Amino acid sequence: MTSPARLMVIDDEERIRQLLLDYLEDYGDFALRAEESAEAALTELDQDHAELCIVDMRLPGMNGQAFILDAARRGLCGRFILHTGSMDFALTKDLLACGLTEDDVFFKPCDMALMLARIRHILKLPGGAA
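RESULT FIELD:
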């Protein structure tokens, strides 16, 4: 039996963080953790890496892009999904270089079933869709 995939949710809004955790928890495929800031997430990831992070772009202090670039550079997380309320958000060259694609960007409020399918696809779990 394989161990559950390690996921971290980083969002400063407690309600959104909890909604994501509650939804993903129902599937039992994931070992879930959450942090409200990029800085706290980096500290936690230093202790135990994640396979995938769901990252809000607008965070207090270090923003989501800076978090992704730092976590990727340090090898703290393998892949990332962006969860943003910024409708004008566009992937930068740096984020593209970290392996993100348009398929990894979800605008709030998003269809959680689509996000779950993307997570499963990225992690090569059953039920994943491109």
